[in-house]
Design a protein that fits this description.
alpha/beta; Peroxisomal Thiolase, Chain A, domain 1; 2 domains; 6-stranded mixed beta sheet
């Protein structure tokens, strides 16, 4: 029996009951709150510890408060939510797991590295469209200090960062997907493939993830019959300035010119004078920019249809130490304002 909602090799169309994004929220750190998008975030931390005993506990608090704020805006309680889909960058996805314990919502923990935001939204959208859920909460987080400690070097070492390095976002963002209500609609999800061009430099995430972003965008266009001109904006999660340009160049070779309408969340959240080198990274890069900036612009009517692909570098400390290259992945979600 043919899957009726499947388009091409990697895309699913929301044909039965496309989920509405009925609520959203974002919390960011102090540095992020000094950037050009500061006015779009719900809350800005005073410092990266936020009164907690560790950076990991501060990230957990951000996650929980983001989820609670989404529910408050939607006038929902945790018992109204069918599923929580969550992810972060830490070992055993400890942030959303401990948050799920506090919230008491049935939970799927997902690890997609920095692709986690659209990964959670993709699976949440399928749940709602398929009639398996009425309300799905999708939340991700990251923290500069927790990610640096896990993936790179202790902050106390003061290691010099190369120009290609990116700054992991301290923040948490999320959305509520609902079967009924008012809000932008998810119309398609395109699941990414793991793509590996052999990049081994853990300080050049943009180069590792760009081939996956290009592959997913290409698949979306081929599967749906749409092209770049069908979107007001095409967005990647955290490629940074180098990864963004590589993605543009790769897609041009395949006949798709996205440059004039293509932005990267990692390039938007910080200004040039904030000294973040190639831009931002982390699960919260696309999560906070989407939940804060992009969806507000859609509500205001500036964008009617966007395509966003959170991008992830699927490496670990062990794989890097053993000399493996860094696989990349990107999951795309098409969001449309209706009515």
């Amino acid at each position: 029996m043919k899957a009726k909602s499947r388009l091409g090799g990697q895309t699913i169309a929301m044909n039965q009951n496309p989920p509405k994004i009925t609520s959203r929220a974002s919390i960011v750190g102090k540095k992020e709150g000094e950037g050009p998008l500061a006015g779009y975030f719900d809350k800005i931390l005073e410092d990266d510890l936020w009164g907690e005993k560790s950076w990991e506990k501060a990230e957990r608090r951000m996650y929980i408060e983001t989820a609670e704020l989404i529910l408050k805006k939607a006038q929902k309680e945790p018992h109204d939510i069918n599923y929580l889909f969550g992810g972060d960058l830490l070992d055993q996805i400890i942030t959303p797991t401990f948050a799920a314990k506090s919230l008491g919502i049935p939970y799927y923990g997902l690890y997609g590295a920095c692709s986690s935001m659209t990964q959670t939204m993709s699976l949440g959208a399928v749940m709602v469209d398929g009639g398996y859920a009425d309300h799905v909460l999708c939340v991700t987080s990251s923290h500069f200090c927790t990610a640096e400690r896990q993936f790179r070097f202790p902050l106390e070492m003061g290691v010099q960062r190369p120009p290609t390095a990116q700054w992991t976002i301290t923040g948490s963002g999320g959305v509520l997907l609902s079967s009924e209500g008012v809000g932008p609609v998810i119309t398609h999800v395109t699941t990414g493939r793991v793509i590996d061009f052999g990049v081994k430099d853990a300080n050049h995430m943009g180069a590792a993830m760009a081939p996956a972003a290009a592959d997913t965008f290409r698949a979306h266009f081929e599967d749906t019959g749409r092209g770049p001109v069908d979107y007001d904006l095409i967005v990647s999660g955290d490629l940074g300035k180098y990864g963004r340009q590589i993605t543009i160049d790769l897609l041009k070779k395949d006949g798709y010119d996205i440059e004039s309408r293509f932005i990267d969340c990692g390039c938007e959240i910080f200004s040039e004078d904030q000294d973040v080198h190639a831009g931002a990274s982390g699960c919260a890069s696309s999560a906070t920019v989407l939940a804060g900036y992009l969806l507000k612009k859609m509500e205001d009517g500036e964008f009617n249809r966007i395509l966003i692909a959170s991008t992830g570098a699927m490496h670990s400390t062990i794989s890097v130490q053993q000399g493996d290259s860094i696989p990349g992945i990107a999951h795309a979600v098409s969001i449309e304002k209706r009515g």
